[in-house]
Amino acid sequence: MKLFLRLCLLAMLNVMAVISLWAQSPAGQASSLHQQLLAERIALPAPDFTLKDLDGKEISLKDLKGKVIVLDFWSTWCVPCKKSFPAMQLAVNAYKNDPSVKFLFIHTWETSKTPVEDVKKYMAQSGFNFQVLMDMKDGEGRHATVENYGVSAIPAKFVIDKAGKIIFKLTGFAGTDAAALEELSERIALAKNRK
Description:
By secondary structure, this protein is α+β, with helices and mostly antiparallel strands. It is built from 6 helices and 8 strands.
């Protein structure tokens, strides 16, 4: 009987060791990230907007229905915004051949008198390949799009599913570019597969 108990104890310790190793493996960490992000999902209607890009072309959110949209609210004076850009460029590159995913970088809260020129200059100098839309002050002095999304700090990122629902909202940036890409990719996958 003692031998049987020892064997059972040994088997249980082996199972626990395997589970512990699995949880530390990339597959276990991915599963953990997946579960964490599932708990963070929301489903709010995404406010529509029509904004101009750096060439003056109008882009409307409603025209992109059926795609997963990643919005990134930022400004040229925002250091954390610019710190997140290498990771965002990795994401843009990763999805460049996926027509079901669209990235829009919404420049807002600019204090400069020449915001379009400033953004063009920054994009040219930095080498980032982003589609930038300008959330300019309206006639009432408001940046309507950023206000409609309830943004209180930037960078602020939103992942919108194919049905036009905000599934994820993120504020700030911390961590590595690789970790940010992994997390954003998982959020995009969850938005793509949302029914």
